[in-house]
Amino acid sequence: MPELSRRRALGAAAALAAGTAGAQLLAAPAASADGHHDHDSPASFDEVYKGRRIQGRPVSGGGHHHGDGYAVFVDGVELHVMRNADGTWISVVSHYDPVATPRAAARAAVDELQGAPLLPFPAN
To answer: Which Gene3D superfamilies does its entry note (predicted)?
Structure first.
């Protein structure tokens, strides 16, 4: 049985990390039950980092988000992010390196991918 290389592990993690980027994922910011926006949700961002376009924004309803209703994309492919109980963020690409914001999680994923494409995460 061949050994699992770091590149193969990263590729598998990237495949598990991302979902298909669709219009429903780019919805308006999430609102609380009383109709007010969640003020704890990080601000949206859209930038080019090391030649890769990274974006993040609050989302509402549907999808498979575990990041408090927040979606992050690398080159249009969703990067699966999660918010920890202490307020830090992780992605499946940089799961063991918590960072302060979803933007930092996107940047860490780009660093870890080292130019490799982020593969879409298959929906259930």
So the answer is: protein ne1242 domain like
DSSP 67-122: SSSEEEEETTEEEPEEE-TTS-EEESTTTTS-BSSHHHHHHHHHHHHTTPPPPEEP
Count of structural domains, the chain: 1
pLDDT of the chain, 124 residues: tens digit per residue: 456 666 666 565 554 444 333 333 333 344 444 333 445 789 999 999 999 999 999 998 655 555 458 999 999 999 999 999 999 999 989 889 999 999 999 999 999 999 999 998 776 5
Question: What is the extent of the structural domain holding 84?
Answer: 20-31+40-116
For residue 46, being part of any structural domain is answered with yes
In a domain, 15, yes or no: no
**Backbone phi, psi, residue 13, to 5°:** -65, -40
In a domain, 45, yes or no: yes
Whether 7 maps to a domain, the answer reads: no
Tell me which H or E stretch contains 49.
strand 45-49
- pTM, entire model: 0.65
